[in-house]
Amino acid sequence: MKKSLVILLLALVMIISACGNKEEKDTKASANNDSPKMVTYKSETGDMQVPANPKRVVALTNGGNFIALGIPLVGVEEWTTKSPLYDKELKGVEIVSEDDIEKISALEPDLIVAPSTSKTLNKLKKIAPTVSVTYNKLDYMEQHIEFGRLVGKEAEAQKWVDDYKTNSAALGKEIKAKIGEDATVTVLEAYGKEMSVFGDAWGRGTEVLYQALGLKMQDKVKKATAKDGYFSLSQEVIGDYIGDYVVISKYADQNNTFQNTKSYKNIPAVKKGHVIEANGYAFMFNDPIAVDHQLEVFKENFLN
C-alpha cells in the first residue's frame, strides 16, 4: 500500500514538473515570437542591426518619406508637423526634438532616424537602433530608396522613383514647349527678417524645378548658391536675382510686405504676372508626398 502511494506521488511530481517545463518553454517561445526580427543594415556609419519591419519609428529628420512608405510613426520633429500635406497621417503622433530623450524613450520606439549633426546620438542609441542621416549626401530620390531599404520597402521606394522620373520628364517637356527652352526660374523666400534665393537641391520645389523638370536657373542665382545651396540677400537687390519666372515660397505667419514695394512691382517677371505663390510649409521638403504636390502646382501654374 505504502509502495503504491510512493509510486503515485512520484508520478504526480513528474507530471507537475513536465507541465512546469512546458509552460516555461511556451513562455520563452512566446517571448521570442514577440521579439522583432532584426536584420543588418549598412548605414552611413557602418553595419548595424535594425528591425526588419519597424512598427514604432521616431523621425528626427523629415517624416514624409516614412509616411509615403506607410511606416508607422510615433514621434516626429516639429517642422514635419507644420506641413499641411501630412495632417491626416500625423494625428496622435508626438512632436519631439533630439533633446527630448525621456519623451522619446517613453514612446518605446523600435527605430530612430536622426540627422548626423545631432549632439544626442549616443543617448538615442541607448533607446533604440538609431540611424544617422547627412542632409544632401544623397539626392532626394536616392535618399527615398535608402529609407526604403532601411524599413524593408525598397521595391516600393524604387517604383515611386521610376514613376516620378517618367511623369516629371514628360511634364518638363510640356512646360518648356510653352514657356521656352531658355526661360529661367528663381525660387525666392522671405522668412523672418531674411530673404533668400535657392539652388537646385534645397527643398522649396527646387529639386522638382531644376532636376526633374529640367528648367533653368538665373545665372546670378546659380553662382550665388553654388557653395551653400542658398543665398541670403536684401530686399533692394532681389530684382537682380529674379529670372523670367519667380516661385515665392510663402508663410502666412511671416512678413510678405516686400510684395507691396515699388521695387518688387517693377521686376519684369512680376509685371508680366510670372509669379507662382506656394505654401512654404508644403514646399519645404523633398520627400515623395511633397514633390508630387509641387509637381502638380507647377503643372497647373506653368501650363494654365
TrEMBL record:
Gene3D superfamilies: Nitrogenase molybdenum iron protein domain (3.40.50.1980)
Keywords from the UniProt entry: Signal, Transport
Pfam families attached to this UniProt entry: Peripla_BP_2
Family stated for the protein in its record: Belongs to the bacterial solute-binding protein 8 family.
Residues annotated as domain Fe/B12 periplasmic-binding: 56-304
Signal peptide (from-to): 1-18
Highest classification ranks of the organism: Bacteria, Bacillati, Bacillota, Bacilli, Bacillales
Keyword check for Oxidoreductase: no
Organism the protein comes from: Kurthia sibirica
GO CC annotation terms, alphabetical: outer membrane-bounded periplasmic space
UniProt cross-references to PANTHER family, sorted A to Z: IRON III DICITRATE-BINDING PERIPLASMIC PROTEIN, IRON(3+)-HYDROXAMATE-BINDING PROTEIN FHUD
GO annotation, biological process: iron coordination entity transport
UniProt name for this protein: ABC transporter substrate-binding protein
Compartments, record wording: Cell envelope
